[in-house]
Design a protein that fits this description.
Blueprint: E1 12-13, E2 17-18, E3 24-27, H1 28-32, E4 37-47, E5 51-60, E6 67-72, E7 77-82, E8 87-99, E9 105-117, E10 123-129, E11 135-140, E12 143-150, E13 158-165
Antiparallel strand pairs: 1-13, 2-13, 3-12, 4-5, 4-7, 5-6, 8-9, 8-11, 9-10, 12-13
Length: 171
Amino acid sequence: MVHIYNMSAGINQTPTWGVTTSGQPFNDLDTVGATNLNKISKVVIGHGEVIDSITITYDRNDGLAPLVQSHGGTGGNITTIELDSNEVIVGVSGRYGFVSSIYGRSSIQSLEFALLNQATGEMRIEGPFAPGSGTPFSVIDTVVAVAGYVSTSGTHYIQALSFFTTHTPVV
């Protein structure tokens, strides 16, 4: 089950983009724990025709080793986004919808990340990953965790995503 976090907890959840009526849900905020979140230090995207997988490395406040959460299949090209100690993800955009070559199922078709270096004010964009022509979505806010759904039959891929942010989400 994907929980909804609210302003009183200091963390908000964006809408979920994609299909949520099937597949296996995941929620990294529940796994890492809101009080242990420090920042995202690495994002690994598996991508080809769609987003096959997403792996996030979370640095923690409790001094323990970073926690790595991986979701999806093993297909596609792998791209690693390393965030330096001053960088945070301040925006994510993408596309979702049905793709005929994956049995007409819905998936996250593309992703792109905006990173801000808080020390220098410099921005950089990573992506887009996968070609995507479906319905666009975006969030402009500091992203601290992800949730979503992974397909459970055939080739595994990301079929829906939601993002946890530290401010009121802009969608």
